[in-house]
Amino acid sequence: MILVTGGSRGIGRAVCLAFAEEGKEVAFCYSKDEEGAAETLRLLQERGAGCMAFRCDVSDEAQVKAMFAAIPSLTVLVNNAGIDLFAEIAQTSYAQWQRVQAVNAGGTFLCTREAVPKFLRRGEGCIVNIASVWGECGGSCEAAYSASKAAVIGFTKAAAKELAPSNIRVNCVSCGYIDTAMNARLSEQERESFLRSVPLGRAGTPEEAAQAVLFLAKNRYITGEVLRVNGGLAL
Would you identify the CATH topology of the domain 2-229? Predict the structure, then answer.
């Protein structure tokens, strides 16, 4: 079974559907979006996929443990769940900072930790983490988010080295501007201004990000890699 965190919309939903179209059974979790989760389930069932949905805050250790206990087997974990915070450093509370780290970096750690024993029993496994271009080069007024995604990238590389002898691969997709709800806060003028800095001149789609995840899941000789899906933004 494939497990995708944050699967009720955006990149997470696209990843769920991409695996379903490959004939895989898919489980996903969501934190609050009941309506979005129901839609993801409908779309998975429409494709004939075996599917499971869990309400789980990935920053909550007990909830993560309960979710993994309910999953009978696991072949691929996609750590996609994440939150953003657009705020100047001087206006960011420590509680806000901690919350972003807890979900984005902490959730990746907690889910990975629970997945490892399942992979060890199988003799193999695959983890794909979703990071961001801001984790590589930093985003103004997004210090907390940038730091959390930089942590995801560092964790990916460390985990890849540690788990490779156990035939568990760990990779990362670093996304640029993808058309998702997370970017909906931008005005049309702000969006157009930002996209002028993207060499390909457009936003990416959740489906394009999902195809990158699928590629890393399929290629059995890639680990510790950061695959950029950003239209050339970080060149």
Answer: Rossmann fold (3.40.50)
Q: How far from the centroid of its chain's Cα atoms is residue 81's Cα?
A: 5
Active site residues: 145
Sheet with 76-79, edge to edge strand ranges: 51-55, 26-30, 2-5, 76-79, 125-132, 168-175, 226-229
DSSP 3-state assignment of 67? helix
**By the 8 A CB rule, do 159 and 169 touch?**
no
Three-class SS of residue 156?
helix
Domain spans of the chain, in order of start: 2-229
Distance CA 179, CA 159 (A): 29
Q: What are the pLDDT tens digits along the chain (235 aa)?
A: 999 999 999 999 999 999 999 999 999 999 999 999 999 999 999 999 999 999 999 999 999 999 999 998 999 999 999 999 999 999 999 999 999 999 999 999 999 999 999 999 999 999 999 999 999 999 999 999 999 999 999 999 999 999 999 999 999 999 999 998 777 777 788 888 888 989 999 999 999 999 999 999 999 999 999 999 999 987 7
User: How far is residue 18's CA from residue 10's CA, in Å, rounded to a whole number?
Assistant: 12
